[in-house]
Design a protein that fits this description.
Blueprint (H helix, E strand, L loop, with lengths): L5 H24 L3 E3 L5 E3 L2 H6 L18
Antiparallel strand pairs: 1-2
Length: 69
């Protein structure tokens, strides 16, 4: 009677698990796109918005040393 090759089956399960984890990580890195009612793709680029949230160009540093003139 033939015996099962459990090591092969286990290796295949491990490869499937790794493949799924890689796919999930790849999906997390991709920008999220949404589709509106007309079928058009709405691209949300959150990286460019978050970089400029905390920047205040009009702010003057409070502790400027006075230069002797």
């Amino acid at each position: 009677m033939a015996r099962n090759n459990f090591q092969y089956e286990k290796r295949q399960r491990e490869l499937d698990k790794k493949r799924k984890a890689d796919d999930k990580a790849k999906r997390k890195l991709e920008p999220k796109n949404e589709v509106d009612a007309d079928g058009n793709v709405i691209v949300q680029d959150s990286d460019s918005d978050s970089d400029n949230d905390n920047v205040n160009e009009d702010a003057v540093p409070a502790a400027l040393p006075s230069s002797p003139a």
